[in-house]
Amino acid sequence: MKIFWIFRAAMAAELDVVNLFFVAGATLAIPILAFLASFLLWPSVLIKVYYWYWRRTLGLQVRYADCGGYRFCYSYRGKPGIRPSILMLHGFSAHKDMWLTVVKYLPKHLHIVCVDMPGHEGTTRTTTEDYSIQGQVRRIHQFVGSIHLNRKVFHLVGTSMGGNVAGVYAACYPSEICSMTLICPNGIKHPCETKFDNHLQDLEQSNFTLNIPLIPTTPDEMEDMFRLCSHVRFKIPQQILQGLVDVREPHNAFYEEVFMKIIGEKSRYALQEHLHLITSPLQVIWGKQDQVVDVSGATVIAELVPGCRVDLLDNCGHSVVMEKPCRTAKLILEFIILQQNARSGTKKSS
């Protein structure tokens, strides 16, 4: 009888172990299955979770700034300190999270602000808004005032469309800027044509009935856009490409409206038309293999802005922030420190 009870107890213990493994396996299986379901069925959800995770990991917080019925969405990290605050302006059809790859390599004590451009992502979108470069400059100035960023001079960074806006901003509000970095900015009459210039000519000849390469509507078109914008070839799963299309699709009509504004007569060369008004120290970063805005634009800017620093990146296209994030962060930080030291030296000598 005693042996029977010992045997029964042993069997019960084994069953408990089996149940434990079953429960543990089920617990692990739930998030794994959820991930697979998201990846296969709802890739757009997975993309949003990805951005949320990286913002959280990098210590960025999302906030909103209301200005007379207009709302800006932005993320920030750190507080104003010894170094200048950094305001980052993204490119066409992107959003504030495109800067995450660069923020990752910037010191955590720096005060960094990444804002959704007018009408993009979490910032207010209206049918009466002026999305020309000058219209966006006015809105960004409104945002800067609303969060009191201009209490001290700050460093302004812009890429592509955001670079065009940043340059015009610095020309219009020179007293607010201590220094500026433009990354592959559009708004310049570059001497050499690019693959995108050829697409643009075809679009104009078709009276814009052809698809715009920067507004993909299928996974294949999304892949083509990455090939156009990036020299580095990223292997992106089909499900993620579909997710990116799904995320962007509800906004495509808006993107078309903005696109027509920034290639219009009022905005197409806005940066070049304002270069002579820029007084703050200027850094230009450009990918040598840019197929959207030709790298020859860097020479044009350097000739028109005395003392402009030019950093050209090998094996890099238009998506500098995505292709060379570490190098980009290092160059921006070096330039900020160099300019701050120069100002300190000037003050001491005077």
UniProtKB/TrEMBL annotation:
The keyword Cytoplasm does not apply. The chain crosses the membrane at residues 20-53. Residues 84-325 form the AB hydrolase-1 domain. GO terms for molecular function: hydrolase activity. Keywords: Hydrolase, Membrane, Transmembrane, Transmembrane helix. It holds the Pfam family Abhydrolase_1. Belongs to the AB hydrolase superfamily. This is Alpha beta hydrolase. The lineage of its organism: Eukaryota, Metazoa, Chordata, Craniata, Vertebrata.
